[in-house]
Amino acid sequence: MTKPIYILGTGLSHNGSAVLLKDGRVCVGIEKERISRRKHDGGNDTLAIQYCLDAEGIELKDVALVVQCANFDIPDRNQFNGKRIFADTTTPKIVDISHHLAHAYSAVGTSPFSECAVMVIDGCGSPLHQFIELHPNQKSFIDPIFLEESQMLCEKDSFYHFDGQKLSPLLKDFSKMAEHKTSSFSLPTTQHSIGGFYATLSKYVFGDMDDVGKLMGLAPFGETGIYNFEAFEFNSGCLYLNETWQTNFTNPSTGYEYFKENFDYYANVAKWAQEQVEKAVMKCISNRIEAFPHNNLCYTGGVALNAVANAKLQDLKIVDSIYFEPAAGDNGLALGCAFYGWLEYLNMPKVAHNGSTCFGKKHNETEIEKELDKDEYKTYSKNKFTNEEDLLCYCADKLNNGKTIAWFQSESEFGPRSLGRRSILAHPGIDNLKDHINRNIKFREDFRPFAPAVLKEMVDEYFENGRNSPYMILVDKTRPEFLDKLKNVTHSDGSARVQTVDEKWNNRFHKLIKEFHKVSGIAVLLNTSLNRKGMPMVETPKEALQLFGETALDVLVLENIVLEKI
Question: What pLDDT, in 10s, does the model give residues 99-109?
Fold first, then answer.
């Protein structure tokens, strides 16, 4: 039997991760935060790498190649924020690649395209000098004006062509790093970055930048037209941020209480910021496609997580098909590193991806039962199902009666969205349930929305555009006749960040929604991540049990075992 080829990708920026390919397919992948339990954890990668090796049942010596990426650094083999797993070894070989190239390969490796264009937009990529050091053969693709700059420049957006085997840069834009001022508008990234602009406004509105996605959730509460000036301008193929916009905002939030007292003001700021980002994204990508036409587009980088902008980009119809990378942020760098190793470094043919983003390891019944044997869990009622249909019927009835379910199934999701493996589920239309989950389970702001998970084959019935959105990365509009039945998953402006559930790789979740449809008449469930504010999604049965105990969740389903509070 031929020995399998393992390639390990590792991302050492914030939101660190590790991914293992086996003969060109993802066999396991994990974000470091899921193991360390520290949100956005990055740096040293030993913890995430060991998880992957253990899950696959192999040792480091079985890995043929390692590809790594870290912003602003080319990590040492032995040491990076602590001793690395590669210390004291000379094998496997380690290859370094740049930030945007890792983003781009994460998209093409998982996309359905054999050939495509790729757009990367984020807060900040690799410094120019580091990019040239890593890829000297690509220096000719860099505009000479950037090469003559004396200040440090970093990748801002990058446009590539994928020929089915390798990526070639078509246009790369760089920007100076922002000056770190004491004002509330000091960009954490480059001066003219869309991602940096959005993160800065998030800090202005909420007093922190822990979750920039909150700004998108707040924007629907604001009004369009309150501010009539532009943040960005586009000149000679480059996007620039006008510094003058800052002078119009002089009331930064000092914390959540202050934010609540001035809710309408901050909602209007969020609305303006969201619209500015949408326009900037449309202009930038339209310009690239106009210069380098292609029917297929992959879109990735942190800005590609903006579901509202993504839907508007799709509606522009500037290409026939767009693939939005589910792990578009820095958590996807390891995925791109691994695919670079397979496709470009080893020159192996692309292997079709099955569409799944669930790369974690499966926790077996023995492990679950061992955890449940602990005394602190004896107070819960326990019901073990041997028949899947009985389990699904039981859970569907609980959901229809207004109970909240912590749903822990199979391999965990890779990326920022829970897609039915590590989820909190609830009825989409029962009064006050949304507020209850935000207040007593998630412990987060009451304006935060929840997503509807809908059967893929029935999305047209409930949502106006009927978008195929398996990764919860596109918004749609709830049809007027379902606004009441879907009020817990419809935002204040009628929008919804939809997840279309595909039975091919999300089979049990698909079956649960079908069963819920039978008892409720609704083929939609409220779906949100199995965590609370400030906590990474749970990875293990132990963490699921801890969360169950400290929140108002009603039911915990660990594979085929159902626990309820007495």
Answer: 999 999 999 99
State the Cα–Cα distance between residues 142 and 139, nearest whole angstrom.
Answer: 5
CB 139 within 8 A of CB 323: no
* 405-408 and 422-426 strand pairing: antiparallel
**84, 77 Cβ separation under 8 angstroms:** yes
Q: Which two tokens stand for residue 15?
A: 């939101």
Cα gap 32→334, rounded to integer Å: 11
pLDDT at 182: 47
Q: What is the pLDDT of residues 204-259, one digit of tens each?
A: 999 876 667 899 999 999 999 999 999 999 988 899 999 788 889 999 999 889 99
Q: How far is C-alpha 46 from the geometric centre of its chain's CA atoms?
A: 22
Q: Measure the CA–CA gap between 103 and 118, rounded to whole angstroms.
A: 10
pLDDT of res. 207: 84
188 in Cβ contact with 237 (< 8 Å): no
The stretch 83-89 carries a mean pLDDT of 95
Q: What is the DSSP string of 211-257?
A: -THHHHHHGGGS-TTS----SEEEETTEEEE-GGGGGG------SHH
Contacts of 113 (CB under 8 A, 6+ apart): 162, 296, 298, 321, 323
CB 110 within 8 A of CB 302: no
Summarised one tens digit per residue, pLDDT across range 441-452 is: 999 999 999 999
Confidence of residue 183 (pLDDT cuts 50, 70, 90): low
Long-range contacts of 493-498 (CB under 8 A, 24+ apart): 493/220, 495/220, 495/308, 496/449, 496/451, 496/452, 496/463, 497/307, 497/449, 497/451, 497/452, 497/472, 497/473, 498/451, 498/452, 498/454, 498/459, 498/463, 498/467, 498/469, 498/472, 498/474
Interstrand relation of 321-324 and 451-455 (parallel, antiparallel or unpaired): unpaired
Residue in 459, 475, 431, 182 with CA at minimum distance from that of residue 306: 475
Measured CA to CA, the distance from residue 108 to residue 47 in angstroms comes to: 27
Q: Reduce the DSSP state of residue 70 to 3 states and report it.
A: strand
CA distances from 87 to 54, 73, 75, 259 (A): 18, 18, 12, 48
Return all residues near 361 (Cβ < 8 A) that are at least 6 apart. 28, 30, 51, 54, 55, 411, 412
* DSSP secondary structure code for residue 493 in this structure: T
Average pLDDT, rounded, for the chain: 95
Report the alpha-carbon distance of residue 541 to residue 550 in Å, rounded.
Answer: 14
Total length of the chain: 566
Q: Residue 475: phi, psi to the nearest 5? A: -100, 155
Name the residue among 22, 7, 5, 3 with its Cα closest to residue 94: 7
Neighbouring residues of 470: CB distance < 8 A, sequence distance ≥ 6: 355, 419, 456, 499, 500, 501, 502, 506
The CA dihedral of 393, 396, 401, 402, to the nearest 10 degrees, is: 150
Q: Kind and range of the H or E element at 547?
A: helix 541-550
